[in-house]
Amino acid sequence: MKHLAAVNKYFWKYKSRLIFGILFIILSNYFRILSPQVSGYVVDKVTQAIKLKKGLPITNTPRNRNYDVLVKQLVYWVETGNISFSNMIVFSGITLLILALLGGFFMFLMRQTIIVMSRHIEYDQKNEVFQHYQKLDIGFYKTHTTGDLMNRISEDISRVRMYTGPAIMYVINLSATICFSVYFMIKENAELTMFVLAPLPILTITIYTVNTIIHKKSEKIQSLLSGLTTTAQESYSGIRVIKSFVQEAAMMRFFKEKSNLYKNNAIGLAKVEAIYFPSMALLIGVSTLLTIAIGGWYHVSHHQPEVSAGTITEFVIYVNLLTFPVTALGWTASMIQRAAASQKRLNEFLQIQPNIFDDNCASLSSLKGDIVFKNVSFTYPHTGIKAITNFSLSIKEGQKVLIIGRTGSGKSTLAQLLLRFYNPENGNIKIGNHPLQSIFLSQLREGISYVPQDVFLFSDTVSNNIGFGMPSSPSKQEIENAAKFASIHNEIMNFDKQYDTMIGERGVTLSGGQKQRIAIARSLIKNPEIVVFDDCLSAVDSKTESEIINNFYQYLQNKTAIIITHRIFSTIRFDKVIVLDKGAIIEEGTHNELIQLDGYYAELYRLQLNRGESIGDSSLA
Ligand code: ATP
Ligand code: MG
Fold this sequence. Notes:
CATH class of the domain at 2-350: Mainly Alpha
CATH architecture of the domain at 2-350: Up-down Bundle
Distance between the termini: 67 Å
Bound molecules: adenosine-5'-triphosphate, magnesium ion
Helix content: 55-70%
Order of helices and strands: HHHHHHHHHHHEEEHEEHEHHHHEHEEEHH
Oligomer: single chain
Largest sheet: 6 strands, mixed
Mean pLDDT: 85
CATH topology of the domain at 2-350: ABC transporter transmembrane region fold
């Protein structure tokens, strides 16, 4: 329960809704609780009339006894108003109708305030969690699966809503119903109340227990179902592999097995539910029966002669009014328990603080100047892999640097350190003599055009993907220019809806090279002073590559550029080439110097020449 304290701030925020909600619940219950009294009174009047007609002695007159003031007033009008018997019945009928309407009206208002409040809280909470997710650094995303993140923001928040809405509403509602009915029942006849209410706690405990079993079973079914869905989904997306390895029959067997398990569990649940509802009805029936039996015995045996047919009617209606709250008590308790477990999971995430945040930052007029890495070392925290070791590099403003090296040598890590996705373990990185930690994260990342190695495009139009990072929506011309620089314009113009074509699941499927070039266009449109391209031409053919490189050459004229690649391309005059191995520099110099050095770079160069790949004009480097 203590975990749910985290949502108290929302109750405070929506306190007026909550207060009105409670008021409406009380009013709704108040009007509902009057109907048993009116019904009891009518029954007594009818019994009296029958006895009068048969000439039997009237043993107990309906006294203006322990009714509520409103009912007392009504009885007073009827008794003193000298109205006929049939008019009295009609009058009481109308009163019952009005009471039901009033009860219903306030119930409507109660749902409108409390349930609407819970939807507002759900909205706020979703935003709170999403905003927190966005603040967390890349390291957090590496250690938590997407499924887990999705579950917490959707499933867990929905469960907490069951607490802030229905559960709170039912708890207040059932407290009000129980208080009102038990109060009037005891006022009427304390002994009878005890007997009549005796089975109700058993009902509550039974419902709570059965509900917990049902919940456990449905949780299991839910996870089996999601396993089944994943199997089906994987077999659709991996259909080519399945077919080429002729594994259809094996997949079918696997699917059947999972499907069968799901079916058996679902049947088990149906069995529990089949017992649940009849047993509930039985317990309610027992309560009603007890009321009639004991009340009747009191009446007949003259043990308590004031117990009339009206009293019994009143009690039977009270018992029925109490049934729903008592039933609700069981499942509200398990609903609150589930919400607490979900909120605990949410709190776990909300308490995680990002390692990367703005602290003592100064606003710079613009992000430019020399980029200096000094003795930088970095180990990935959750795996302990040392990716960068004592790395030092100085890049003057406007210089173009090529970083090359074997796979896993730490190239992408360097780019990510420059964007401050991680803080270095040792050493420091400066841009324009400002340590990265002193630059606002937003300014740092807005000021660098970064194309990551694994490009990602959103399921949106081509133009929205290209204009993604722009503060205001860019003009059509700006988007087209960026696409032309990235040599993708002509291909986009061949799409059906050109720049309005949807990308991804709902639209066209792009080739790897097309995706890379759209990602390049997205970074070029920002036009900042520093660019970092991480192996972003790996999926394009050499002709397109040299086209893009020619464009880059114009585009990069006055910019500082770090280009990471596996291939040597040299239309761009690189001021420096760095060869990285195991996180450290093993070769550093210009193209010519490295060729003379005859190390890794020279070997790669020769290999590429032998394969006949285009190298561009090497004399430029
Ligand atoms: P490639 O040329 O294949 O892109 P790279 O030079 O970019 O390789 P990095 O991605 O920087 O290499 O990886 C350097 C080392 O750090 C590798 O040993 C890799 O396994 C490890 N590494 C990379 N990313 C992570 C991560 N998110 N968590 C843990 N270890 C990582
Ligand atoms: Mg890489």
